[in-house]
Specification:
The chain has 171 residues and is mainly α. Helix 1 runs antiparallel to helix 4, helix 4 packs antiparallel against helix 5 and helix 5 runs antiparallel to helix 6. 81% of the residues lie in helices and 0% in strands.
Amino acid sequence: MTELQKKIRKNSRFTANTFKLITIFPLSGILVSLVALVGLLTGADIVVQKLIVEAPKANTLQITLFLLASIAVLGLSVYCLLLAQYIFRDISREYTPFRPIHVQRLRRIASVSVVCIVGQALTEAWSLHLKGGNFSIDLNVAYFLIPLVVCSFSFILDYACQLQAEADTTL
């Protein structure tokens, strides 16, 4: 194993652990939303009472649907983070980063990220609407640059995988 391969494996292990650590944040958001949802359904949660005070026009069904939508968006973000963690975990265990599974994972990350961006914008607009404001979606186009770059890198990695496969069969 060359020094470069050792360096790639070491940095990949660190990056995989970093993605695993970052996953805590959306998971904690899911936990808070689940606690609020259970509290809403049982009628005994302070977090939900704060939501109801901030959104006096919202009924229980609207708040329940909002919490479920928030949980779905956070769940998708956890999925993306886990896919990224799997990519770097696998690279840290193997001798080559050029595998087709990584291309598939990157493309899934890009597509699910777009859904997360749109979902986050919709839930924020919905939250504002529940608090008495107007339902207006503030969708920042710059957020779509990251999924676009990830998708572009997947095509580059796909080409590298093809070259690696060709080199392997040549040997």
